[in-house]
Amino acid sequence: MKKIILLGVGLVCAGTMYGQTFADAIMMKKKEICFAFMFDQGKWDQYWEGTTLISNENIGTFTRNTYAPMIAYGITDKLNVLLVTPYVETMSTGGQLAGMQGFQDVNIGLKYEAFKKDFGKHRVSALATVQFATPMTNYLSDYLPYSLGLGTQQFAGRVISQYEFNKMIYVRASAAYIWRGQTEAERNYYYNNGSYYTTYMDVPSAVNYELIVGGWALNHNLRLEATYTMLNNVSGDDIRRWNMPQPTNRMEITQAGFFAQYYLKALEPLKGFSIMATFNQALEGRNMGKSTNISGGVTYQFTF
Amino acid sequence: MKKIFTISLSVVLLIAAVTGCENDLPTFFKFTAYEFSNLDVDGGSWQPILFSSATDIVVDAPAAVSSPEYQAELATLKSATQNLSGSQADAVEYWTNNPLIRWNEIALELAAKYNLIPPPNPDGTYTLPSPANPQGPPPFPFAHPPYTCRMLAYLSVAQFDGLIAAWHYKYEYNRPAPYVTDSSIPYAYKKNTLPSYPSDGAVIAVVSRDILKAMFPLEHEYLNAKAEEHLNSLAWSGSNTSSDIEAGVAIGTAIKTTALARASTDKMSAAQTPKPVSDAIKQEAFDRFGWSWDNMEVPQRPVGLTPLFGQVTMWSVPDVEDVRPGPPPAPGSAEFQVAANELKDLAKNLTEKQRKIANWWSDGLGTYTPPGHWNRRTKEYIIKYEMNPLRSARTFAYLNMAVMDAGIACWDAKYYYHYPRPIQTIPGFKTILGTPNFPAYTSGHSSFSGAAADVLAYIFPAEANAVRAWADEAGESRIYGGIHYRFDAEVGLAQGRAVAAYTIERAQQDGADD
Description:
The structure holds 2 protein chains of 2 kinds. By secondary structure, chain A is an all-beta fold. Chain A has one domain (10-303): Beta Barrel (Porin). Helices cover 0% and strands 57% of the residues of chain A. Chain A has no helices and 20 strands. In chain A, the strands form 4 sheets. Chain A has a 12-stranded antiparallel β-barrel. Chain A is globular, with a radius of gyration of 19 Å. The two termini of chain A are 13 Å apart. Chain B is mainly α. Chain B has 2 domains: 43-54 and 79-264, Vanadium-containing Chloroperoxidase, domain 2; 273-508, Orthogonal Bundle (Vanadium-containing Chloroperoxidase, domain 2), CATH 1.10.606. Helix content of chain B is 56%, strand content 0%. Chain B has helices at residues 2-19, 68-80, 86-95, 100-114, 145-173, 178-181, 200-215, 220-236, 242-264, 275-289, 334-349, 352-360, 369-384, 389-417, 422-425, 444-459, 464-480, 486-508. In chain B, 52% of the residues are buried. Chains A and B meet through strand 8, strand 9, strand 13, strand 14 and strand 15 of A and helix 1, helix 4, helix 12 and helix 13 of B.
């Protein structure tokens, strides 16, 4: 039972990193504990101003690195708890604006397996997760694209369903609604299709859909997935022409990607470890960078 | 199932708890109509800005209160005040008995809407906004700080002169307010003894609409709709009859014509120079001082922002060179190095408080600019001190005349000295604020703020310490943001104050202090 769940790491990274695995259908057994560390690098040299893809030599190539330590624990076989504390750094090759670095938002999630049933070689399962995120530091959200995150409390509810054939091939779909609150800027006036005389900004809520086709190989030591994900705000304004983005923007991103995880259970000294890697490419977007993300991570799991 | 229920309930409670902490997001200043602290009965004798006296505008005597035509107007007004729809009642509440506040907000909103820098074309060139082709792209105007300070100055000056004329004829003809003559007419605001002919609200509506239409040619529809609602609210609120409003409209029209005639000849249209002129200005500075400023954007902008704004006609300073400061320390000099080291040190060790100050006063692209920031503060004081519309207009007028003159003086220094920005002189320097497209010395924020604070200290003496502390902080904010040296800010503040001294001297002689 060398299983890993990564949940919600990227939920709050303005969509640049929402690893495929955070919505998977795998549960840890009671008293199993898992430590994970994931590094993700997203790069872009074009971004969508509204829905128009443009480049800006005063940004050049933009990089966002996320270091995400995570811990997960099986409260029961059907209820797991997860905690992620990402550290983010941002930089760009063009222009003179300073990048930022620091801890972003603490993410806490509960995952519940509501249904799992075998029909011969066919297995069907349904799960639900709830997640909560809130800033760990007083970083400035109103400094996009360099800001560490959106600087607001976030609350997400997700449903996941999976069909698996012969414990080899599976298809999974998940849908989430991410409720976001307000963020506080360091100015008390901003324009959002009109004047706002306040330091507070409404950060748009979002919906997130994922469709995954996966399978096991190498004697169930290797897991491979192809992923298709959408993270779309349900409201918000567009970046105005040649202007800075702001947290009120309507951000949308559609990505396609791959995920691979290899369990080192055959190697006695490394038993309990797994390594994983992802690749994601933004295909369509709005008010966001057209990012290419690669990530790698290590997990270690044992029974407590 | 029980567990699912428990989780669902927790979710609902958590969302409810977090939503309960949400803050109201105001889109305009919330205040209700108030009783004016003073009516300024002699306000019609004050010295206007654009005219020699209020009587330059001629307003005919109104029909007698007892005349059948005025009685008919009262009857019409009475029916207009009855059974207001929801949106009509909202309009009455929104415009209040000091609608100058709303027009100032509309001006700031349009400044923020149009304060967008033109983007590069695909071939690396830049197209400038043109009043001849306001649609663009890019749209006209680019409401940068020089544009916005000038827009606010003309708006406020025209409002002020219009209200001096209105006040003059109000007390010359002494037509009582409708609710005085006919006590069955309700009045939505605070009753006072101000005569109603001509309507001060109508003067404000027309003058504001027409000045802003000239400044924002793509907003005619929006501004017409705002003015129409405002004019209608004068009837819905029981403030004015139709002849009151017509007389106010006539004053407004006369004033705006004179104001826009001055605007058309103040040399603003030449402020954004062609490249050869800009290059010559730069070369002159280099020959004189041995340094010059470069735009560091990619692709490089061929011309800085409004190189000849320093030659625009000033309101109160006889000659811009009267307020031109001495030269800044040469780049590389010991004095310069102290300032540069401070910036490098701040970039490394900026505190959260310093970061907040930098952002608080940033008022950069996409916002209402520093002149807008000071107008917003002024508005709040006007309401705090319960000024009548005439006194409010005077406050905005001298504020914005001083701020525009400070901008002109600052721009004169910027292009005379052509001093490079920190990102140009300090290799590899990074900032948390975007560096603007014009030379460093003197700091525009500092000059605007020094002038604004001194005018506000003159008008609101009890707030002098607070406003001057804000001006200091505004100057300091640019150092924290990494886009100005300390000497830019300090000399800019002093320059702004020197400009304001001329404005205040003029204000002290206009009769309002007597």
